[in-house]
Specification:
The protein is built from three helices and 39 strands. By secondary structure, the chain is mainly β. The structure holds (Z)-L-Arabinonhydroximo-1,4-lactone. (Z)-L-Arabinonhydroximo-1,4-lactone (6LW) is lined by residues 13-14, 29, 73-74, 119-120, 174-175, 190, 194, 237-238, 254, 499.
Length: 544
């Protein structure tokens, strides 16, 4: 079956995977976003369906003090004895913790906190067949690399930690995952740091507590020597192994798709990729030892594995529409793709009962502050379009600088906002475009608005965001008025730093005062325009 990498486009780093029968579950890290640790399900490793989050309650996920790219780091997702276990780290509050669930789609437990330093915890059950497995937590303890200790999952109590390994091939050894395969214990780690030198290395031992022997040909995966000129996939690392139900082996890992030649940039964040694994002399070989490509073949021998497979993920997972959003406000709760920055003030978000509208009651906080009134979804296509119809008429009689609109946001100091405000001596209702890059902020476009709802549009290509208004009057043939454009590269990790990626979101703020005027978002649409972009390129190619 032909498949496309990344299997999870957009900001989906530090993937961890487990299999239960024929069902595959995957978790990624989520940092300052709420709810935390998005979860996905698949039956063929190619088509992934968002099924919710592991951390959906404030007491599971305190993010009040989490700066951008802090909060929840890399998770490990495992299934043991009928229970799903997720271990991760809230670097802003509490450190490592474990939550459990019988059904990953349901509510997960309260955290069991584990008092150990560092990041990237892994769980491994060493079952010697006596039905009383020893459970190990393995993590990056600090500059000395990978540490391990026995853990009591009921209480979180730890045994004496020991150092397992450090610097198998490169520096910054992290993201350990422990496996027992045919009686040999394998330790998979990430090294080189989470950018273009990133890599996956492996070591093995006859016992999980013994010194691990490093693979002489490490790393088993890296694009550090693969020029971005010829392969957009860069910075591959942080992997997790899974044996498929037909016995084949696969690695999920993170990587980026860079643009703009050298040094280039990436604004969609670190994404989740897939590659086949074979074994040679007891060592894993990823993708036949070749660099990973955007196109791959995934032929899980489903039929023979299980004659009566359980249902496929819902049919509408057609290629391009897979990650799109249409009419998200029709139900009584937002879909799994929607996130808040930090713990949300829930009374500021109102799904106007069945009218298909979302009403935001703007707080004093701006997008630069903790807990902004913001809800957004990941940008998952380079070529895409977001449109929302906003009914928002800031009250000219209140002395509050009320604003609401559509934003493309990387973090609290890197975002472009298309907002509706009242400005100028005449207090006219206007649309503005604000560009915030670090501590530089500028209103780069402004225009008067006719009365009534207005369609705010952001059209993205690999290099540019185009901000436009569409008259909400004649929706059959909307006139689009471009206000301005802005480069994608200033919302990239190479500029902003950090670990996340761009979100497309809706916001409201009173710039220091609570808004009196509710912002009613009557519709929202996010769709890929990749097929249009491809068609345009083909036309250009034929006319040259
Ligand atoms: C994560 C570490 C990493 O904890 O980046 O790329 C860190 N690898 O393993 C944050 O995502």
């Amino acid at each position: 079956m032909h498949a496309e990498n990344p299997i999870l486009p957009g900001f989906h780093p530090d993937p961890s995977i487990c299999r239960v029968g024929e069902d595959y579950f995957l978790a990624t890290s989520s940092f300052e976003y709420f709810p935390g640790v998005p979860l996905f399900h698949s039956r063929n490793l190619v088509d992934w369906e968002p099924i919710g989050h592991a951390l959906t309650r404030d007491d599971q996920l305190p993010l009040e003090t989490a700066d951008s790219s802090k909060g929840v780091f890399a998770p490990t997702l495992r299934h043991h004895d009928g229970t799903f276990y997720l271990i991760t780290t809230n670097v802003s509050a509490g450190g490592h913790f474990v939550v459990t669930a019988d059904d990953p789609r349901g509510e997960w437990s309260d955290p069991t906190w584990i008092d150990a330093p560092g990041i990237d915890p892994d769980l491994f059950w060493d079952d010697r067949g006596d039905g009383d497995p020893t459970v190990y937590v393995t993590y990056r303890g600090g500059p000395d690399g990978i540490e391990q200790a026995e853990v009591d999952l009921e209480t979180g109590a730890l045994g004496e930690p020991r150092q397992l390994c450090n610097r198998l091939e490169g520096d910054y050894t992290e993201a350990p995952h422990l496996y027992e395969i045919d009686g040999t214990y394998y330790l998979l780690v990430a090294e080189g740091g989470t950018h273009t030198k990133h890599m996956v290395s492996v070591a093995r031992a006859d016992d999980p507590t013994e010194p691990f022997e490093s693979h002489p040909d490490n790393p088993v995966l890296s694009h550090r020597n693969v020029s971005g000129m010829f392969n957009p996939i860069q910075a591959t690392g942080h992997g997790d192994l899974v044996q498929a139900h037909d016995g084949s082996w696969w690695l999920v890992f993170l990587g980026i798709r860079k643009h703009g030649g050298h040094p280039g940039w990436h604004h969609l964040g670190r994404e989740t990729f897939l590659a086949p694994v074979e074994w040679n002399e007891g060592w894993p070989v990823v993708n036949g030892g070749e660099p990973v490509e955007l196109d791959l073949e995934v032929d899980l021998d489903v039929e023979t594995a299980n004659p009566n497979p359980s249902p496929e993920p819902s049919a509408d997972l057609e290629a391009d529409s897979r990650w799109e959003t249409r009419d998200p406000f029709a139900g009584d709760e937002l879909g799994p793709e929607w996130n808040y920055r930090h713990n949300p003030e829930r009374d500021r978000y109102e799904l106007a009962d069945g009218t298909g509208a979302l009403v935001l009651h703007g707080s004093p906080a701006t997008l630069e502050d903790e807990q902004p009134t913001f809800v957004g979804r990941r940008q998952q296509h380079f070529d895409c379009l977001a449109r929302t119809r906003l009914a928002f008429d800031p009250d000219p009689d209140v002395d509050v600088d009320e604003e609401a609109g559509l934003t493309v946001l990387y973090d609290d100091s890197h975002h472009y906002d298309l907002g509706v405000v009242r400005r100028g001596d005449d207090g006219e209702r206007r649309a503005i475009v604000r560009q915030r890059v670090g501590d530089i902020e500028e209103i780069t476009a402004e225009t008067a608005l006719p009365d009534g709802p207005v369609d705010l549009v952001c059209e993205a290509t690999t290099e540019t965001y185009r901000f436009a208004l569409e008259s909400a009057v004649d929706s059959a043939k909307p006139e689009r008025e471009t206000l301005t454009t802005a480069p994608t590269k200033y919302l990239a990790t190479e500029v902003a730093g950090g670990f996340t990626g761009v979100y497309v979101g809706l916001y409201a703020t009173g710039h220091g005062e609570p808004c009196e005027t509710p912002a009613r978002f009557e519709s929202f649409e996010y769709r890929s325009t990749e097929s249009e972009a491809k068609a345009e390129v083909e036309v250009e190619a034929t006319t040259e």
